[in-house]
């Protein structure tokens, strides 16, 4: 087990090094995303300011909590964009055009290669800008920061980032079984767009089932903010852990079944 972990860590390090070397061969491809992603983030902030400038509360949350929510979702999305989004997003194309053959014949986990082979350092500025927004939300909300709060918040952001990753892999794994996953990806984008603007606390009834269970984007930034503000209940914390564990098992099962179901392009 230990040797397998070491082997996987070496593979991740090699994949990242190769990706960075490839990006540095084309300087614009390396530094360009810094500028583009920073501009996109600033545009998002302007949109947020326009929408919420005349709104005092969203559900039970005030402006400080909403700023924290926007910053937290942006932080999770930034980690996603830096580490695994571009690799995972290419899964449907690799399945359809037969490139998945190359990953199945190479040593090591195909999913591990896909996850880390296209890291994107161009989104690093989003991490710092998200941190600024989070700090502003803490100040606006009058939250007194303690080491326990910081560690707990980091823990929940990490759990929700993994959940984000699992949902992305699961949705794109449907391409193993159907000709196209386009409709499910459109559904994913619509859910993300909505949940980036509205916290999970505003969802009730069928919408809560959709965004807390089926597409759990509603809890991804909500739970970390609730922990930071002292609003997270024991039941809410247990639910967050159960959803993350459930999607871990479901995604692993669907991926393994998909690999078995996959028809090689050469067959």
From TrEMBL:
Keywords from the UniProt entry: Membrane, Transmembrane, Transmembrane helix
InterPro entries per the UniProt record, alphabetical: ABC-2_transporter-like
Domain of life: Bacteria
A Pfam family annotated for this UniProt entry: ABC2_membrane_6
Segments crossing the lipid bilayer: 34-55, 67-87, 119-138, 145-167, 201-220, 232-255
Record PANTHER family: INTEGRAL MEMBRANE TRANSPORT PROTEIN, SLR0610 PROTEIN-RELATED
Protein name: ABC-2 type transport system permease protein
Originating species: Lacrimispora xylanisolvens
């Amino acid at each position: 087990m230990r040797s397998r972990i070491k082997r996987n860590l070496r593979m991740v390090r090699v994949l990242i090094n190769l990706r960075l070397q490839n990006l540095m061969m084309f300087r614009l491809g390396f530094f360009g995303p810094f500028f583009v992603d920073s501009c996109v983030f600033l545009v998002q902030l302007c949109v947020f300011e326009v929408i919420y400038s005349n709104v005092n509360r969203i559900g039970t949350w005030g402006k400080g909590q909403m700023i924290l929510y926007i910053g937290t979702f942006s932080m999770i999305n930034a980690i996603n964009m830096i580490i695994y989004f571009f690799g995972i997003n290419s899964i449907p194309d690799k399945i359809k055009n037969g490139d998945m053959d190359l990953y199945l014949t190479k040593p090591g986990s195909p999913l591990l290669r896909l996850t880390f082979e296209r890291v994107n350092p161009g989104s690093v500025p989003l991490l710092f800008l998200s941190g600024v927004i989070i700090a502003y939300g803490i100040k606006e909300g009058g939250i007194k920061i303690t080491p326990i709060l910081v560690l707990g918040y980091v823990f929940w952001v990490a759990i929700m980032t993994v959940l984000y990753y699992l949902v992305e892999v699961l949705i794109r794994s449907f391409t193993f079984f159907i000709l196209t996953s386009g409709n499910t990806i459109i559904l994913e984008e619509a859910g993300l767009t909505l949940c980036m603007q509205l916290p999970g606390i505003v969802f009730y009834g069928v919408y809560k089932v959709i965004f807390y269970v089926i597409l759990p984007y509603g809890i991804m930034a909500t739970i970390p903010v609730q922990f930071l503000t002292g609003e997270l209940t024991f039941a809410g914390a247990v639910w967050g852990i159960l959803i993350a564990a459930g999607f871990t098992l479901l995604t692993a099962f669907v991926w393994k079944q998909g690999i078995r179901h996959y028809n090689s392009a050469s067959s």
